Amino acid sequence: MLPHLPEGFTAVVAGANGGIGSAILQSLLSSPQTGHVIAVSRFPLVFEHPKLDSITADITTTTGRQALCERVNGRPVHLLFNAIGLLHDASHSIQPEKRLEQLDEVSFAQVMYINAAIPALLLAALKPSLQGKHATIIASLSARVGSITDNGYGGWYSYRASKAAHNMLLRTAAIELKRLINSRLFSASIPALRTLLSQSLFKPVSLPKSYLAQSSWRNS
Ligand SMILES: NC(=O)c1ccc[n+]([C@@H]2O[C@H](COP(=O)([O-])OP(=O)(O)OC[C@H]3O[C@@H](n4cnc5c(N)ncnc54)[C@H](OP(=O)(O)O)[C@@H]3O)[C@@H](O)[C@H]2O)c1
Description:
binds NADP nicotinamide-adenine-dinucleotide phosphate; globular; alpha/beta; Rossmann fold
């Protein structure tokens, strides 16, 4: 499944209740190569599995990240998969903007915080368990619309900007961690897939098998 990682590897999945996060979690649990998965989400997962250690915590808070670190308890983490992201949130009146007049400072700050700051803060919190001699893969989901050169349509100011910032933060972390970690760090830019985040907003596409490899960068 993941040839860079050892048999029985330990994974942490953040955003494990989301559309993509839950699919990654299921895939990891069904692989014989996976030893143990620590899955973190704000709401409890509705299933159990012998390899699954689920934790209900909001890692967008310092307390939540501390709770995750306590659960990891200093053990080596071989795979960190971050599937947290925010495009719209009706309960906080957050919608992707179509025009400049729709920019709202509170919504903008929240989208930047969830999509850009949190992946970096998560990396910082788990750094002690990621560094060392063991092989590590760090993956964090970006979005194709975060590409400046690919921006042919405009709109979605906050989301686009937050994913561009995400990419810069992950790239910068990759440079720092390369010296400390036997790592491969991916910022995966993906097109639309049908999940709660994307439904009714745009048309999902089928991913060619080679797409992720072509549209991601890695530090080794
Ligand atoms: N679906 C697509 O078409 C698409 C395209 C390009 C990029 N992406 C990116 O892929 C990632 C996953 O997207 P998805 O489609 O799986 O979306 P999703 O089903 O809406 O899941 C989003 C995840 O983000 C977490 N989250 C959202 N707002 C949060 C908040 N305020 N505080 C804490 N956690 C929050 C949720 O955590 P809980 O598990 O705790 O609920 C959830 O797991 C995102 O980064 C998204 O930008 C998706």
